[in-house]
Protein 1
Amino acid sequence: MVEWSELLLPALGASVLVFIASSVIHMVLQLHKAEYRKLANEDDVRAALRAGAPAPGQYLVPHCADPKEMGSPEFVRKLEEGVNAVVYVRPTGQVKLGQFLAKWFAYTLLVGLLAGYVAMATLPRGVEYLTVFRVVGVTAWLGYAWQGPSDSIWMGKPWSLTARSMVDGLVYALLTAGTFAWLWPGTA
């Protein structure tokens, strides 16, 4: 049986590799830069949002407090007039990249540990490389990428963005799978 302590090295190694890969994808190659567009009236939108002073959180425009109101003529008119949006508001002030990176690293570690747990619960010590690779790879891909389709279905996130994020998640999952398969306890 594989012990929890034996999962720490592969999880940490995978986290470092995923962190580096995501940095290359996002900061060096900037593959997702074009996904963020500027509103033509950005200053007006910012002023309107500032006037409402929303707290950090997720907002739906137009908003409907009670599902019974969704069929009301007023709400239907708002939907037809547009704009229909999901808005995320972050705290005011400069972006503290270090906090985002620390949280991202913690998330990669958690995905690695959970993928390792699934492998630990299903695979014996010393199992062949490809078996570990498949179990960890699929589990890690679920952790890194499979919220995206739900966001496209329910939040209106463009499917093209979801597809690109899922490819990123696949890269991260492959790195995680390779690390675990290489360092799996009991293999020579």
Protein 2
Amino acid sequence: MERVGHQAGKMAKLALGALALTGVALPLAGAFAQGPEMAAQELTAEQVTQGRQLFNDWSCGACHVLSDAGGTGPVGPSLDGNTLIDHDFIVGRVTHGQGAMPGFGGQMSDEEIDLVARYIMQVKK
């Protein structure tokens, strides 16, 4: 009889542990789920100005066409009207580079890279 009570106590502890993990996991899942939503949110006028400034400060327009920033570069793909790129693609390419595109990770902060990606997504025609 004592063994049955011990097993029941063990099961209760496991159930409480699972419940506690759920209490931690659900808020964390919600935090991660906000990433793409955040990327899709409309930028404020101030953020657009900051994104444009970053685009120009890092000379992105020397290689890429982006009308809003005055970019006319013939080297990289045109960003205007480019339906093949999304926020995550831009973040990855700006961070790590590829081919003729240099990586800016470590030079630009993650926040700056995210902002320039959100800016490009919002203003590309």
